[in-house]
Automatic annotation (TrEMBL):
InterPro entries: CBFA_NFYB_domain (IPR003958), Histone-fold (IPR009072), Transcr_DNA_Rep_Reg (IPR050568). GO terms for molecular function: DNA binding; protein heterodimerization activity. The keyword DNA repair does not apply. The lineage of its organism: Eukaryota, Metazoa, Chordata, Craniata, Vertebrata. Keywords: DNA-binding, Nucleus. This is DNA polymerase epsilon subunit 4. Its main location: nucleus. It comes from the Eukaryota.
């Protein structure tokens, strides 16, 4: 089968027009992450995630697998809310995410209802950002 796929491709890896398109089976498949040293399976630092988990007084022990799953879930959550907020920014013909885009995404998507009212001005968000009531926070450009 590999010989047939190779025959449909020229020497430089480009499909020949007379043979038609190369099948999906011949297309290179994405590689699974390896366990090689230095390969990161999570974009969030697992030590930080573990520290956040242990900040809960009800948690006494947390396994490494649970920490990894929580880190991955957090990555997926941030990716989802960022995409939804970016759609709100695009509707306003902007490429820069602003606080109001996150607020609009939270309002529009039922799954984010638990965040409603949690990101109000004067909350811990302003403490983390070092902003006060009179200051505007800068947007993030994608």
């Amino acid at each position: 089968m590999a010989a047939a796929a190779a025959a449909a491709v020229t020497g430089n890896g480009v499909p020949r027009e007379e043979d038609g398109p190369v099948s999906e089976a011949a297309a290179p498949q994405p590689q699974a992450p390896t366990n090689a040293p230095g390969a990161r399976l999570s974009r969030l630092p697992l030590a930080r995630v573990k520290a956040l988990v242990k900040a809960d007084p009800d948690v006494t022990l947390a396994g490494q697998e649970a920490i990894f799953i929580l880190a991955r879930a957090a990555e997926l959550f941030v990716e989802t809310i960022a995409k939804d907020a970016y759609c709100c920014a695009q509707q306003g013909k902007r490429k820069t995410l602003q606080r109001r885009d996150l607020d609009n995404a939270i309002e529009a998507v039922d799954e984010f209802a638990f965040l409603e009212g949690r990101l109000e001005m004067g909350s811990d968000v302003d403490v983390m950002l070092g902003t006060s009531k009179g200051q505007n926070t800068k947007g993030f450009t994608l």
